[in-house]
Amino acid sequence: MTFAIFIIILHLFIATTSGFTVNLIHRDSPSSPFYNPTKTHFNRLHDAFERSFKHINHFKSSSILSSSTESKIQAQPLPNGGEFIMNISIGTPPFNVLGIMDTGSDLSWTQCLPCKQCFKQNLPLFDPRKSSTYKRITCKSHSCLALDMPPKCVGQHNNTCVYTYYYADMSHTTGDLSSETFTFGIENKFPIKNVVFGCGHVNAGRFKASVTGLIGLGGGKLSFVSQLDESVGKKFSYCLVPLSPIMTSTTSDNVVSAGKISFGDDDAVVSGSGLVTIPLVEREPSTYYFLKLEAISVGNKRIPYKGSTKISPTENVIIDSGTTLTFLPTEFYDDIVAAVVKVVNDTRVKDPSNVFGLCYNYASNVGEINDDLRFPVLTAHFSGGDVKLQPVNTFVQVEEDLICLALVGTSDFAIFGSLAQINFLVGYDLVARTVSFLPKDCTQQQ
């Protein structure tokens, strides 16, 4: 994906006593295991848009709508929803795994030996019998009781906690809930002990061979961030660079790093002039990060939030780095489009793919760049603070001669997507229950 899909390869690693930072590598760059040299920049863009629509579908079957046991275990459809890959080591001695980094689920897991049913993976499978720090979690432990779905108890005295997770596309993993040492850094210099994770012995679905499992970064008790101890701090932050050819002089195919992601009280701190800190709304499921959006201004015209989605009016938007586009209630979206049309002095054109409702010709009749296009700043008025969105956050070049508003109307779920987060240092604090935005040139974070 050109905007929201990135790979964390730990190409450059900086560790401190209370935090660590890694580079993000763009999913579609030649360094990525997902790289397909036959696809053009715009092919990848349209793949990203398709994943956005699939991503919103997973919320339909999530526990936002139901408190039933069956719905609670559903999370993001991994093949299309995983936005980052983390290259880490687990066990003693350290064993390399590649996990999809997922802000929409909590439990981290990897495929393990002995494997009764496994999807194909390029790396060897983790063998817990060869690790001196591996432990199974008991059924009466707090971690076992924190699982979304009631566990099974097996083994001697029926004491081993066995988890099962189903995702929205019916991919699934089943295995022993366990604890292990997770190690970061090329030289394995930053170990985090006793991380609860899933050692998956039965795993199936639309997983890629380039990954071995998942790293959960949601807001629930079993997420990786929630398990960081007080010496590190339960914080993470990321800074995503603009990759659209009209927004930056750097072309996406040549970008090695697409930003950074940091963990811990030192490295993940977000501070500086222009900082906006917004409270996260407390509601179930705790996995997702909910905000209250009160209005959006187009230039100086403030448009109040209206319309309905399947999230309540109190906590009406999910911030999700795994969705490229921003989705808003149809009535609200229509008002924003009308305001943008009044500001942009040009003729609307139809999007041939029927994805976007407002588009303009980027090239003039003689094939030159249309210099008459002037796009307004949109300000997102959240409960707690205002976030000014530059054109790089709200417009996207979808073809050589076509630029469109990167907002979409929906009756399902309002999502504040990753395009809207470009060139912000975005920080999550799971203790203070806040998300912060700091305007920043993320290209200078390389």
From TrEMBL:
Family annotation (Pfam families): TAXi_C, TAXi_N
Any one GO CC term of the record: extracellular region
Keywords annotated in UniProt: Aspartyl protease, Glycoprotein, Hydrolase, Protease, Secreted, Signal
GO BP annotations, alphabetical order: proteolysis
Location in the cell: Secreted
Molecular function terms from GO: aspartic-type endopeptidase activity
Signal peptide: 1-19
Domain of life: Eukaryota
Keyword Protease: yes
Main location: secreted
Membrane keyword on record: no
Residues covered by the Peptidase A1 domain: 84-438
Family, as annotated: Belongs to the peptidase A1 family.
Protein name, entry field: Peptidase A1 domain-containing protein
Source species: Acacia crassicarpa
Source taxonomy: Eukaryota, Viridiplantae, Streptophyta, Embryophyta, Tracheophyta
